[in-house]
Amino acid sequence: MLKRIKYIFLLAFIFYVDCYSQDPTFSQFYANPLYLSPSFAGATEQYRLGLNYRNQWPSIPKAIFHTYSVSFDMAMPNFNSGIGVLATYDVAGSGNLSTTNIGILYSYDFNITKEWHIRPGVNFKFYYLGLDIYKLVFNSQLSGSGTMPSIYPPPFESVADVDFAASALVYNDRIWGGFTLDHLLVPKTSFYGDDAKVPVKFNLYGGVQLYKKTRLRTKLREVLSVAVNYQTQSKFNQADIGLYYYRDPLIFGLWYRGIPFLTNQAGDAIIGLVGIKTSQLHIGYSYDFTISNLLANTGGAHEISLVYEFTSFSISTGRKRIRAIPCPEF
Length: 330
Known about the structure:
14-stranded antiparallel barrel, mainly beta, single chain
């Protein structure tokens, strides 16, 4: 009974206190490049289809924290451009509090010098927030006298708005770095019509290939890369550093989430990943091993990614090729 009362007060806090939602995070940043940055739209040989799934904290009873992502993008090298579409669906909690984003992305590649490129990008998207109030348990259902303060179901079961993100990516054959500013239109996120907004999110990322061995001048055979990723949204900060090792066709990765002095939760998780990369298909699996105080309660997080890159048989041999970005596949 005490547990049920605690959940009721938690629900009251969520409904009545000004709160700001935060975006879900994928551990396999580069297996979902359009989610990381619109600048990656079209950064492929021609066509790319991506599927991503994340199961966060599976050990918490009767709680659901699932995130799904579907993306498709294509290169337009004759116009130095790329376009894409990205749809994400995130559902959390027993009330199926869900967030859906569907966006159209565009990027353009500039030559700064012979070696260096800059690639700005934009994402225009539709934002939708939903809630199944019939799955929630209110105080009047537990006690005739109720609890204080009283909790009333929200008048709206869904909230819709529009949003916008902008980014820029700088890279050469071995180094890449960029930033993304998301939720620039600060979409509304209140079921009661209050002035609650999704705060602007800032993402800074980059890395370098420490070692690279190729075959036939273009096909990668062995690569060792180090990468960093920093995110801040409202009062929350997260900083990660990772190492990737690729030896055709396998790739292994290890990330540390929670760099001290740059994050709210120092020492949050260690992330291990393994993947296989062929000329067309990339499959990856990662597990977030929690090392914070939540160690015994969450069950970490599982993440699966599938990326399929393909070209049209009608492409002529004289077609202009894109400049490859050296970031990892996962």
